[in-house]
Amino acid sequence: MPISKALGLGLAILVLKALAPAIMTHIESTAIAFLSGAEVSAHAATNLAASAGSFSLPDSSNRLVLPQAPQIRR
Description:
mainly alpha
């Protein structure tokens, strides 16, 4: 019985050694895909912030007037 456990442990170690490069490759490709998506998102946010900062009304004398609630008197 102890010999079969030793053989099973040895076989498990060999399988893990064989699978480790494949697992690392998948982890690496997942990390690269995540970081690539984060980079695209950062560029989009930067472009959106730049376009929002350069926004101006066509005629500055025609300012946008927001409605105001009347004051409540007691």
